[in-house]
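Need residues for this backbone.
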């Protein structure tokens, strides 16, 4: 029997950390006439890390440096991206560091990301970190003139197509990100933060509805079902229903639409707001109770109780021609569970699809 492949634990570095290192290396090149082959750079978390500079050149007015991102064992679409910094003097802007976005760095088009509309998608922590590194090596020079730093990412536009940037109103490239400088493999904290950010972006567009989905298939399903909604309404919450609803509550979202399959929705009905498969098994007694509530005979309810998956319960209901009332009952219980946690807060819609993304149920809660 082949052993299950384990996930790696090797840490990597963020696009923000690599951009800061490239900016530091280019600045040294501009000041000294030679871009170093290695650069020790300050991370936002206070660590100092040595990066290899894979490309560097300079002349009297301009310097260029490239750091290739190593994402460690994190399956990140920006792994091996060439974070590039070009630095030049600004004679008329003493002590200023002007940060620009070049090709492959996205542009902000929506409010809600903490960045000015029209500015490059370089998040606040990386911005500060880039400036810190430049000031450490160019403090004296900045007393007489300023510096312009342009961060670019060749192929950044193609990389961005594998992200949710367009949903967040970030166009033509990736975001320069990172709060510590370190990439932790399969980071749940990063995913959770992206869920909250998605809800905040929707609210900042003046939208009163978010569509929370558990993954790619359920999102495609809800996009087909709800073509009238703006793209910013759709947020892949994964397992993080609780953080998504907390953010919706804090940002005055009124209507919650949840798109999911029977397993995840059953977990919500049984009171879980973090729904990862490894946390707790599906409560098959609850499934049996739902079947009994719509009039299913006791022997079938017992069979469902003894089963191991919510999918099996759905298959039994389909055999009996009772899919519609069963999924309506499940939806009702999901809503009741959420109302107990968020009383008089949201209006709910529940959309259920099968494993092929085909619609099984549409439930509207009228408070």
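Answer:
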């Amino acid at each position: 029997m082949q052993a299950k492949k384990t996930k790696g634990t090797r840490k990597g570095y963020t696009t923000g950390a690599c951009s800061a290192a490239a900016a530091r290396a280019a600045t040294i090149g501009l000041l000294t006439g030679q871009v170093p082959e290695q650069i020790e750079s300050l991370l936002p978390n206070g660590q100092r890390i040595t990066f290899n500079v894979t490309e560097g050149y300079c002349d009297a007015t301009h310097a260029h440096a490239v750091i290739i991102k190593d994402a460690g064992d994190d399956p990140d679409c920006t792994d091996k991206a060439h974070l590039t910094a070009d630095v030049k003097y600004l004679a008329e802007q003493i002590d200023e560091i002007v940060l620009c976005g070049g090709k492959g760095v996205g542009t902000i088009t929506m409010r809600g990301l903490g960045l000015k509309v029209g500015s490059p998608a370089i998040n606040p922590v990386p911005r500060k970190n880039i400036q810190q590194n430049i000031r450490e090596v160019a403090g004296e020079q900045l007393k007489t003139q300023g510096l312009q730093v342009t961060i670019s990412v060749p192929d950044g536009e193609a990389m961005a197509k594998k992200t949710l940037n367009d949903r967040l109103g970030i166009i033509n490239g990736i975001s320069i990100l990172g709060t510590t400088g370190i990439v932790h493999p399969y980071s749940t904290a990063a995913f959770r933060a992206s869920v909250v950010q998605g809800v905040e972006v929707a609210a900042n567009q003046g939208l009163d509805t978010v569509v929370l989905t558990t993954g790619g298939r359920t999102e495609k399903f809800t996009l087909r079902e709800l073509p009238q909604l703006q793209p910013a309404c759709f947020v892949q919450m994964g397992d993080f229903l609780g953080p998504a609803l907390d953010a919706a509550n804090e940002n005055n979202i009124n209507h919650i639409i949840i798109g999911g399959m029977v397993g995840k929705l059953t977990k919500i009905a049984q009171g879980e707001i973090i729904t990862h498969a490894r946390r707790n098994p599906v409560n098959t007694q609850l499934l049996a109770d739902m079947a009994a509530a719509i009039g299913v005979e006791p022997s079938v309810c017992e069979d469902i109780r003894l089963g191991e998956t919510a999918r099996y319960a759905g298959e039994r209901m389909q055999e009996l021609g009772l899919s519609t009332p069963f999924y309506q009952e499940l939806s009702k219980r999901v809503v009741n569970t959420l109302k107990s946690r968020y009383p008089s807060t949201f209006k709910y819609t529940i959309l259920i699809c099968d494993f092929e993304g085909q619609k099984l149920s549409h439930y509207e809660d009228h408070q």
